Amino acid sequence: MVPLQRSITVLGSTGSIGRSTLDVVARHPERYRIFALAAQRQWELMLEQCRVFRPRYAALLEPEAAESLARAVRQEGLPCEVLGGEASLVAVAQAPEADTVLAAIVGAAGLMPTLAAARAGKRVLLANKETLVLAGGLFMRAAAESGATVLPIDSEHNAIFQCLPADYAQGKSRAGVRRIVLTASGGPFRELPLEELIEVSPDQACAHPNWVMGRKISVDSATMMNKGLEVIEAHWLFGLPAERIDVVIHPQSVIHSLVEYLDGSLLAQLSNPDMRTPIAHALAYPERVNAGVEALELTRIAALQFYAPDLLRFPCLRLAYDALKAGGSAAAMLNAANEVAVAAFLADRARFPQIAATCAQVLESLPTTELDSLDAALAADAAARREARRCLRLDEAA
Predict the structure, then answer these.
(1) Which of 174, 265, 278, 359 has its CA 20 to 30 A from that of 159?
(2) Which 3 state secondary structure label does DSSP give 307?
(3) Kind and range of the H or E run holding 45
(4) Cβ neighbours of residue 263 under 8 Å, at least 6 residues apart?
(5) SS3 content of the chain, % helix, strand, coil (to 5)
(6) Counting Cβ atoms within 10 Å, is residue 319 exposed (0-12), middle (13-18) or buried (19+)?
(7) Which residues make Cβ contacts (< 8 Å) with residue 386, sequence separation at least 6?
(8) How far is residue 75's CA from residue 242's CA, in Å, rounded to a whole number?
C-alpha cells in the first residue's frame, strides 16, 4: 500500500533540528513533501534548502533577511514565494495546505507560530521548549480543543512517548504508570571540582561530551537547566506532577529516558545519540521509517552508568522543580532569566555560577502571577528579562 504523503511546514529549517528533519524527509520523497520553510535570519542556507526541496513558501522572521532571500529566489527563478516578519511564520504554520508542522524555532520567536499550528489542528512535531515552558497550559488546551496531535521531538520526551501505552495521550492506561525518568549526560562539568566552576570558559561549557548542539543549549546542558526545563515540559506533555518526574545522570546517553510502571517494570528507549531517530519516529508515527542512523551495537557498549544528580553542582535543576511546583508565571520567568544569563556568559560578561545565581535572584525578586493568556506569559517573560539584566548589571556603562 502506498503511504499517505504528508505535507510539512518546517519552522526552524536552518537550525540543527530543522536540518536533521530535512535529511530524513529527503530519504523518503514518496512519503513527505515540504510545503513551507521558516527560520529567523539565515537566508543563504534557506536558499540552498529552497533549491533542493522547492517549497511553496519560505518565511524569515527578519525582514532584511527575507528581502535578501527574495532577491536570490527571483534571480534563480525558483518557484517559491518569500515572506517576512512574525506574521509570515504564523501564516505558514496554520496554512491549510500543510497537515504537519515541525516546531523547532528556538526561543520566544517560535511560540506564536507553534501555538497557531496547535490551534489549527495540525500534527505538531514539537521541539520548541519555550512553547511548553512559557505557555504549557495554553498550548495543551489549544491542542485538545482543535484536535491537534502533539508528538515530542526532544530525545528524552520522545523516548518516554515510545515507552508509554499507545492510548496514554487519550487519558487511558495512566493508572499503571508510577513515574517517568529523564536521563541526562551531566554535561562537561559532571566531575569538575566545584571550586573550579567559576573559572570555566564558554568554549569549555559548549564542549558537550555526546551531542553536537548550539552554544546556548550546550551551556544549558552544562548547568542542567535543559533537564530542568524538560521536567517542566514533561509535566505538560504527560500530565504528571513534579514528584513523579525524576532525573538520573547517564553519561553514555544511550538510554534516552524510561517509564516505570506499578508492577515494577522499567521500559527504556535506547539508540545512538542522533536526533534523526526521534524525528523519524514522529514523522512516521505510528509507523517506522529509516532515519539514516547507525544501529546501536549493544556488544560495543562496555557499561551503562547511572548517578543521582548533585543539586549543589546543578542548582538550576532544583530551581526548575521549584518553578514547576510554584506554577503560574514561575517557569516563564525562570526560562527568561536563564536566557539572559547564558547570553551574558557566552559574551564573557558573566561567570558560569552567575547563571544559576541570577535565575534564583529573579525568582525571589518577582511575584508569581497567573498565566491566563499568552499576553500574560509574554509579560512575565519580559519582566524577568529586565530583572535579570539588572541583577547582572548589563545595562550599566562599561
Answers:
(1) 359
(2) strand
(3) helix 43-53
(4) 176
(5) 50, 15, 35
(6) buried
(7) none
(8) 54
- State pLDDT tens for residues 334-390: 999 999 999 999 999 999 999 999 999 999 999 999 998 989 999 999 999 999 999
CA distance 289 to 285: 9
Q: Which residue has the higher pLDDT, 214 or 50?
A: 50
Calculate mean pLDDT across residues 89-110: 93
CA nearest neighbour of 185 among 209, 206, 163, 160: 209
Task: Give the three-class secondary structure for 306.
Answer: coil
Q: Which domains does the chain have, with CATH numbers?
A: 6-153 (3.40.50.720), 327-398 (1.10.1740.10)
Q: Which pLDDT score, from 0 to 100, does residue 168 have?
A: 81
pTM given for the model = 0.93
| Per-residue pLDDT at 397 exceeds 60 | no
Cα–Cα distances in angstroms (integers) from residue 33 to residues 26, 37, 98, 154, in the given order: 9, 11, 9, 22
Quote the cell numbers at residue 225: 537547566
